[in-house]
Every structure is written in C-alpha cells, then in structure tokens.
C-alpha cells in the first residue's frame, strides 16, 4: 500500500488508514516500528510490531539450537 507523507505542524507525518491498522492487528496507542528492509534490490520502509524483522538465517539457527544441533 502506498502512503503519503503529510505536514503535521511542520513535521512529516504518515497517516495509516484504518484498514491497514486492522490488517496489522494494531490500534491507536500501539507501538509500530519503521524498519529499512530490501525487497530484492529495492530499499523499502516496513511497518513492524517488532523492532527487528528476523533474518531467515536467524530462524535456521534458532531451529538448529532447539533441535540440539543434530
């Protein structure tokens, strides 16, 4: 979804439509993080409920650690 950066008392602001908030499962007062990620070779800003999007390698290491490394 494309959003527009708006002027809010001299500062940039992003208005997030209600349908996007509902899809994310968040509401007014919840914390969202803006994370810089690459989709292919394009730099994007991503909204996330966690401060960091786990790398696939992190997921594999976690799985390896849980299974005892066997």
TrEMBL record:
Taxonomic lineage from the root: Bacteria, Pseudomonadati, Pseudomonadota, Gammaproteobacteria, Pseudomonadales
State the protein's name: Antitoxin component of MazEF toxin-antitoxin module
The UniProt record lists the SpoVT-AbrB domain at 8-52
Matching InterPro entries, A to Z? SpoVT-AbrB_dom, SpoVT-AbrB_sf
- Origin organism is Pseudomonas fluvialis
Pfam families (alphabetical): MazE_antitoxin (PF04014)
Task: Give GO MF terms, alphabetically.
Answer: DNA binding
């Amino acid at each position: 979804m494309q959003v527009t950066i708006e002027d809010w008392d001299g500062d940039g602001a992003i208005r997030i439509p209600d349908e996007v908030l509902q899809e994310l499962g968040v509401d007014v007062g919840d914390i969202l993080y803006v994370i810089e990620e690459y989709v292919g070779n394009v730099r994007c800003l991503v909204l996330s409920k966690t401060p960091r999007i786990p790398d696939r390698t992190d997921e594999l290491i976690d799985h390896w650690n849980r299974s005892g490394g066997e």
